[in-house]
Amino acid sequence: MPDATVMEKLVSLCKRRGFIYPGSEIYGGLNGTWDYGPLGVELLRNVKNAWWHDNVTSRDDIVGLDAAILMNRTVWQASGHESNFTDPLVDCKTCKSRFRADQIAESQCPKKPSKHPGEFNECQLTEARKFNLMFKTFVGPVEENAQMVYLRPETAQGIFVNFKNVCDSTRIKVPFGIAQIGKAFRNEITPKQFIFRSREFEQMEIEFFCKPETSEEWYRKWRDERFAWYQELGLKGANLRLREHSSEELSHYSRGTSDVEYNFPWGWGELEGIAHRGDYDLKQHMQFSGKDLSYFDDETKERFVPHVIEPSAGATRSVLAFLCEAYAEEQVEGEMRTVMRFHPRLAPVKAAVFPLVKKDGMPEKATALYKDLKRNFNVFYDEKGAVGRRYRRQDEAGTPFCITIDGQTNEDQTVTIRERDSMKQDRMALDRVKSYLMEKLGA
Ligand code: ATP
Predict the structure, then answer these.
(1) What predicted TM-score, i.e. pTM, was given to this entire model?
(2) 257 lines ligand 1 (CB under 6 A)
(3) Are 291 and 235 found together in one domain?
């Protein structure tokens, strides 16, 4: 199957089944924005919850934060974003299209038959100029320069500016981290590849503060831990890699950066960057704010500016990787079945409950089970159509288990439980279903 087809099929399944819709669709859309439907919002939330659980609540050296999206403009001057957060932009004077100068080789001229920009005789590409990716807006009723603020292009700066607050208001000691999940906005020149590069997206970031002499060790630990996290959630084998940046690729302040990359249907793309940022960010904020952001170690009586390891992940971009990895088509009894093989922790719906037919007390029994399971899991009830079709619908949603109440249930209090990937059906005592799901779903 050509890879472009996989993406087309996935985008279409996402729309049809309510994972992801184009933003503002009934008004013709807004490029680079996407809306998460009933299944998509659960999937995205499960990714964020898994990250928060594994990196914050299950650890004792990381605390959470939720900072404002709008921040004082000086934050972005201190961080370097106002002067450096740019992409090189090229315009075509003929077709009025815009391209990233560093991506001409992968871009297409809108003229047919499509070639790369600059390859038709009529193409008139301008010199590349710097285009800042931050969105601007105004605080208060007057649209003047002094009131201008940016929508944050990353969540990280909200963490740095609260470093002192967190130290002063908790008993946490270096080494420790601050974690945040939230929206980020970038006015990407060419949003593309579905939700991979959008203008509004979500990030999951940690700033981990440590003693300078331990920073190399923490960098290696984080790099390995973050890579393992994606593997545990199902991105296995040859489709996942950890790529260490070469010295030419590193930012001037970074002593090491690794990217976790996924092999999307169009090629490798970054899911997360893990960077050793030294003391660059805290020092910049000390300089611009005039506030002392150094740390005093009670035990050694030393004062120092901590070094920082930053694992910076895209929540929405990871959702795309999990969708791509889960998507499978297979022949079953002469019919094509589409199944989303999500890891049980990520599956939007954990189990579906069906009465085999709408009579003989089956709907009542099924509804009672459904209501009981719903107290612990996101479960779905369906009594419409042939049971085979109901299974297929749940396969497309990625539901790990389907439980059917049938004629035998009345006789011996057992139900059928069907597993999504193997399609194996087992009979099980009705009163065992909940504990079975708890065990299988790790709830
Ligand atoms: P890229 O090179 O792909 O533009 P980046 O290196 O600029 O990404 P970072 O600034 O390191 O990205 O952001 C951290 C993470 O945020 C990325 O690894 C990615 O998962 C996510 N991310 C960044 N830009 C976008 C975007 N436009 N849409 C969706 N996710 C994004």
Answers:
(1) 0.95
(2) no
(3) yes
Q: What is the pLDDT of residues 383-424, one digit of tens each?
A: 999 999 999 999 999 999 999 999 999 999 999 999 999 999
Please say if the pLDDT value at position 233 is more than 70. Answer: yes
**C-alpha 241 to ligand 1 mean position (Å):** 17
Residue 421: inside a domain: yes
57 DSSP 8-state letter:
I
pLDDT for the residue 1: 46
**Whole-angstrom distance, CA of residue 306 vs CA of residue 296:** 10
Return the CATH number at 354. 3.40.50.800
Q: Does residue 418's CB lie within 6 angstroms of at least one atom of ligand 1?
A: no
Q: Which residue bears the tokens 């945040």?
A: 180
Mean pLDDT in residue range 241-257: 90
Please tell me whether residues 312 and 397 are part of one structural domain: no
Say whether both 52 and 96 belong to one domain: no
CB 231 within 8 A of CB 158: no
What is the rounded CA–CA span in Å between residue 205 and residue 274?
10
Residues 366 and 428 in one domain: yes
Residue 103 and residue 219 in one domain: no
- Cα 180 from chain centroid (whole Å): 13
Enclosing domain of residue 256: 3-76+136-323
Nearest CA to ligand 1 atom 23: 314
Q: How many CA atoms lie within 13 A of 408 on its CB side?
A: 8
Ligand 1 within 6 A of CB of 155? no
Which CATH number does the domain housing residue 245 bear? 3.30.930.10
Q: Indicate which atom in ligand 1 lies nearest the CA of residue 275.
A: 11
Q: How many angstroms is it from 275 CA to the middle of ligand 1?
A: 13
Question: Measured from the CB, is residue 188 less than 6 Å from ligand 1?
Answer: yes
Average pLDDT for 42-61: 98
The band of 443, judged by pLDDT with boundaries at 50, 70 and 90, is: low
CB within 8 A of 142, min separation 6: which ones? none
**Is 342 inside a domain boundary?**
no
Domain final position from 262, 289, 323: 323
pLDDT tens per residue across span 332-354: 989 999 999 999 999 999 999 99
Which residue has the CA at smallest separation from atom 19 of ligand 1? 314
Residues 307 and 286 in one domain: yes
The closest-lying atom of ligand 1 relative to the alpha carbon of residue 315 is 20
Q: How far apart are the CA of 315 and the centre of ligand 1, in A?
A: 10
**% of residues, the chain, pLDDT over 90:** 87
